[in-house]
Give the backbone structure.
Amino acid sequence: MATAIARIYAARGADLGLLGASAERLADLAADLRVRGAGNVKIFAGDLSAPISYEAIIGEFTGEMGGIDVLILAYGILGDQARAQRDPQHAADILNTNFTSAALWLLAAAKRMDGEAVIAVFSSVAGDRGRQSNYVYGSAKAGLAVFAEGMAHELAASGPRMIVIKPGFVVTPMTEGMKRSGPLWTDARRAARMVVAAIDRKRGPVVYVPGFWRWIMLIVRLLPAAILHRTKL
Amino acid sequence: MPEMALSPVRSWGRVGAPAHHLVTPNTIAQARAAIASGGAWLAHGMGRSYGDVALSAGATLISTRALDRFVAFDPESGILEAEAGVSLEEVIRVALPHGWFLPTTPGTKYVSLGGAVANDVHGKNHHRAGTFGCWVHSLEVARSDGSLQTCQPAVNTHLFRATIGGLGMTGLITRVTLQLVRVPGAFLESEDVAFNNLDEFFELASRSDAGGWEHTVAWVDCAGARAGRGIFSRANWSEDADREMRLDGFKPRVPVDAPSFLLNRFSVRAFNELYFRLKAARARLTRIHFGACLYPLDGILQWNRLYGPRGFYQYQCVVPMPVQSDAIAALLREIARSGQASSLAVIKQFGARISPGLLSFPMPGTHIALDFPNRGAATLALFERLDAIVAAAGGRLYPAKDGRMPAGLFQSSYPRWTEVDALKDPRVRSDFWCRVAG
């Protein structure tokens, strides 16, 4: 979904900085974004979830790009719930990547962005209620949402605008392998347009993508445990 | 990139839904790993071919949907390089603001570059521009042996010619380099001219060609007592420099399958009568956006569902110039006699420009394309009678639209198929190729 969002900004002629794991893939994406109209495109390759110096990278990034107007934090791993229940290392990887590293990026970035800037951080509807099918991933995304909400509170007066994005079912590489058809599914381009619209209008602090997921998750949260526990959700 | 369980895949005609393993690689490296990893496979783009050229029951379909990155675009020369999954719509989005457009385009922009090359698609300007393959500078093809081959008109020529119109048989097209053409803006000047019979059509076609009209196509009535009448549409790019895209507006969608009885001989006749009268009533030069002129059916998403749950066939054939008027008349007579309503019949005269593709469909002559709701055996029996007329005329059918052409007709009308077969990737398999080349 980050790719689809970057393409929207590219078409507007924005300068873009790309952080990601694979230098080769970032280079291919940078070429694509330039063709689509982006101005200056810079690449910073590295493992975003490794215990690295977030401050230093954000500092270098800010210096090269001349400040950050919009930061999109949209990485994560879905992992394998069943494997995570057996394999503590896998569980730790899911928690570290989706929560710990993302939270540290937020802390590092917020300091260097001004009151006009926007940070959009990707949580998930999976974080709205613990369910047997994906609670390792879900709890990490729930933690991240609370962390970002807290920062939104802290920054409300003078800091950058913090928006927590909670996507529902979106057709992206993360959901490859699922049965992806039906009214609950949204394609990545459409979801990206909704995210950018939320950023443009400084919505938030919590934005569901698409919006109807707010009501679906309200119902899921309100389900009595006695009923939830009889489902396979 | 896990491999999916078997899931049903339909082509545009929606006649069948064979099960496939569907894989959507995110990078060319992942795609190469996927095709090198085992069984039979076939490339699959946006699913706009009508029959079975992009289906392969039980095999792995390699979707190019996520191979959608541009590589380079030079706004000076109009040369564009992109991954094969980039759609024609995305090309327009990038090119038009710089005053460039596709050199030729089929009637939908929801087609991938890879699919446009593999089917060597043509458009309303075939008589001037030739096919899509005429404008390809370079192709990159990944094969099951792990190789990644670049081919061009003068480099690796045989693979180049076998891949253009090659229906995916030579491997997975991963990158395409294409020459675009200059346009002043996003608008065309278009006019509709009514004709009363086929002789008038051929007369109009020749005069429009000689008169320098860039886009020409005609609609012909083949359902009523006045079969053979029609509307001839022709258009040129307007000098108007307005480059308004109109790509992101709301488009209605056909949400469910229409009931099968919706299209019958009476409703089709009524529609044809209305269409004829409306068009004939405003025969004058009109400024029209490229979306309405070149892609009228893209305005309604999933229009193929109008044909109901059993789907539909399109019969598209070309007959050579010397016999075209007799052969087209014979085809129209046979369709009228069958009473099987054809709701949309499109007729156009192809030009003489020859594609590099060994299996390219167009030839100098006239093609006609007709939609038929799938009524099972009766529909297929009609097609056999039409086949006989096409074969006797020395014509051929368009594989991109076909789901039932017999092997004999394919092999006699595409004599160079053996050269493509010789370069076929040994693990590529399609339902179409199994049927016609098996």
About this structure: Chain A has a mean pLDDT of 92. Residues 171 and 178 of chain A are 9 Å apart (CA to CA). The interface with chain B takes residues 11, 24-25, 28-29, 31-32, 35-37, 173, 176-177, 179 of chain A (CB under 8 Å).
